[in-house]
Amino acid sequence: MSWRGWLAIVLVIAAVVSGWSAWRQRADAPGTVTGPLRSDYVLRDFELIALNNEGRESFTLRAPLLEQNPADRTIAIETPLFLVPERDGGRWQARSQTGWVSASHDELRLEGDVRMTSPDQGGRDLLLTTTRMTLLPETNIARSDELVTIQQPGSRIQGLGMQVDLTTKRYEFSSQVKQRYEPRRR
Fold first, then answer.
1. Gene3D superfamilies this protein is in (predicted)?
2. pLDDT (tens digit, 9 = 90+) per residue, 64-108?
3. pLDDT tens for each residue of 113-172
């Protein structure tokens, strides 16, 4: 056999070995990595103003830490302060230990030591306290399925489950309502 014949055999063997090696390496492809997803973005010590569809302020948020979940685009917040405007120019203030904002920014959830106060102007100062509350800024509604206490000058009302219209400051309890008159001291 000539040297060209031997060279052809060697080249065919090399091609078969490299093809087989490539096929084996493809079969051993690394698996998908599982573990905690990293946030799309993180904000620290910030103030954020969210606008509604008409371009008006829907709510303002101040907090030391915000992280967006890349899987569902929701937002987790540490010790948030939400400022929700009302039509008379005032702002409701809502604070809690943690907060959550839906991906479409139309639902805000507050959890842990929730305290919500009505705007200063208006003459009907309200303080709402509970453990969990949902705010719907588009409709100016706040609601909770938990035990809620509403304090205002001269009275204290407590009940299980509540909804308040932030525009009119009208509230409605679902059940187990107790009211106590607390006269002002002069």
1. Lipopolysaccharide (LPS) transport protein A like domain (2.60.450.10)
2. 999 988 888 899 999 999 888 877 778 889 999 999 989 888 898
3. 999 988 876 556 888 999 999 998 888 899 999 999 988 888 888 999 999 888 887 889
DSSP string, 92-159: EEEE-SEEEE-TTS--EEEEEEEEEE--STTS---EEEEEEEEEETTTTEEEEEEEEEEEETTEEEEE
Would you tell me how many other CB atoms lie within 10 Å of the CB of residue 130? 22
What is the C-alpha separation between 135 and 128, in angstroms, rounded? 13
Whole-model pTM? 0.70
Domain spans, the chain: 1-30, 42-181
Nearest C-alpha neighbor of 109 from the set 124, 99, 119 = 99
Question: In the structure encoding, which two tokens stand for residue 66, read together?
Answer: 């915000």
Backbone angles phi, psi at 45, to 5 degrees: 45, 75
